[in-house]
């Protein structure tokens, strides 16, 4: 017969083994779960890294040298200049003579330009239709313009301005040969052979010495393209100088009868002092001035070459 104490001990041993086994299983489950989460976190971190962007990318190769096409495109790029940082000078020919210009930049769209023209020509002893002519053409002007470029990278412009100095005029002296006739207010006068007649005339192209000008053209004296310094400006427009002035004086004798011209006969009069002769001259001048009324503008046309100085 087994003692009670022994029976009790042998009965509790299986229970202890079961409890220990359960605790070991629980610990193993927790370890497995922790390993699972660790594996999942490591996998996610690896998948999050982009294979195309390594942590330390290799150095890139140096870009190739620019091609000729790239150089050409760079030269066409617009250059942005500080106001009044560039200066250009130009010269050429115009309807007012030798043309000189200077310009500076105001902003991206505007240039301020000064212009000057000069011409002087004298002709002597020109014979035509019984007259001996001596004449002088004097041209001298100066002005300023504001050149507006609607498209800065192109040369088209509009240029309002002002003519501040104008001494344009043409003068002439005519001496008819004896017996040659001139007509004043429908009255013929024949040049006297004893005291020959002389006519002095002056045509003024400067009624308004300060006049508004308006021109258009092509060519920017201060190119806005990279590397550009030379331009070939062209200009066309008008100066609103008003109707030209005309003056004439007569001296010497002339005759209303052709036969008297050879002998200074009774019909011959002093053209400078005779009242009728002066009346006829005044009437004729009025007709000529009326013919000049449509000419209230003076054409402007010039072409030339210019070079500008500006920093990069």
Features:
312 residues; alpha+beta; eight-stranded antiparallel β-barrel; 3 helices; disordered N terminus
How does this model look, in words?
With 312 residues, this protein is an alpha+beta fold. The protein is 23% helix and 42% strand. It is built from three helices and 16 strands. It has helices at 4-48, 68-75, 275-292, and strands spanning 87-94, 97-105, 110-128, 131-148, 156-166, 169-176, 181-184, 187-191, 198-204, 211-218, 230-231, 234-239, 245-251, 253-255, 268-270, 298-309. The strands form two sheets. An eight-stranded antiparallel barrel has the order 1-2-3-4-5-10-12-16. Strands 7-8-14-15 form a four-stranded antiparallel sheet. Strand 3 and strand 4 (131-148) form a beta hairpin. The N and C termini lie far apart (120 Å).
Short description:
23% of the residues lie in helices and 42% in strands. With 312 residues, it is α+β, with helices and mostly antiparallel strands.
């Amino acid at each position: 017969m087994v003692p009670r104490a022994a029976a009790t001990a042998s009965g509790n041993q299986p229970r202890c083994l079961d409890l220990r086994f359960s605790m070991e299983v629980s610990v193993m489950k927790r370890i497995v779960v922790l390993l699972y989460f660790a594996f999942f976190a490591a996998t996610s971190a690896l998948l999050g890294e982009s294979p195309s962007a390594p942590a330390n990318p290799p150095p890139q190769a140096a870009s190739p040298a620019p091609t000729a096409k790239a150089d050409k495109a760079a030269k066409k790029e617009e250059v942005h200049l500080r106001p009044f940082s560039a200066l250009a000078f130009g010269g050429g020919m115009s309807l007012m003579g030798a043309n000189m210009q200077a310009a500076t930049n105001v902003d991206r769209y505007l240039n301020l330009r000064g212009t000057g023209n000069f011409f002087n020509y004298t002709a002597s002893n020109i014979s035509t239709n019984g007259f001996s002519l001596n004449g002088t053409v004097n041209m001298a002007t100066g002005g300023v313009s504001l050149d507006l470029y609607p498209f800065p990278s192109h040369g088209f412009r509009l240029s309002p301005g002002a003519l501040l100095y104008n001494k344009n005029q043409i003068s002439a002296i005519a001496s008819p040969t004896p017996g040659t006739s001139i007509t004043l207010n429908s009255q013929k006068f024949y040049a006297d052979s004893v005291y020959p007649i002389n006519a002095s005339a002056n045509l003024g192209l400067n009624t308004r010495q300060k006049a508004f000008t308006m021109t258009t053209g092509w060519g920017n004296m201060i190119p806005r393209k990279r590397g550009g310094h030379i331009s070939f400006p062209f200009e066309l427009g008008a100066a609103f100088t008003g109707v030209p002035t005309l003056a004439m004086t007569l001296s010497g004798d002339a005759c209303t009868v052709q036969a008297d011209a050879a002998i200074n006969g009774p019909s011959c009069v002093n053209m400078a002092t005779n009242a009728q002769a002066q009346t006829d001259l005044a009437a004729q001048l009025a007709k000529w001035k009326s013919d000049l009324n449509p000419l209230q503008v003076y054409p402007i046309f010039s072409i030339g070459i210019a070079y500008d100085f500006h920093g990069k």
